[in-house]
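Allow me, if you will, to draw on your knowledge of protein folds for a short while. I have a record of one protein: its chain in single-letter code and its fold written as discrete structure tokens. I remain grateful for any guidance, and I place the record below:
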Amino acid sequence: MINRLIRRFRTKEIAATARCAACPLAHCVRGSRAAVLRMDCDGGEACRLRNLGLYEGASVRVVDMQDGLILEVRGARVALGAALASSITVLPLGS
């Protein structure tokens, strides 16, 4: 039974990575890498994120997914809420 649950979890993880060409950052799975395509958040929020290194064309890695996301951006870790992560469109690059 445990093996079935593990397979089901891994299948969902692979399907989520493979299905989106361009998707919200909130849909990326833990450990995946992505390139930022567009930020559809407020001007102030977008400016703050750009100052932290999260800008269009930047490569990010999803470190953890709890209530929001923890990203690795240019060697630093940045925490984002789920709503803000949903407003950022990325192109998944794989693991």
Notes: The longest helix spans residues 2-19. The mean pLDDT is 82.
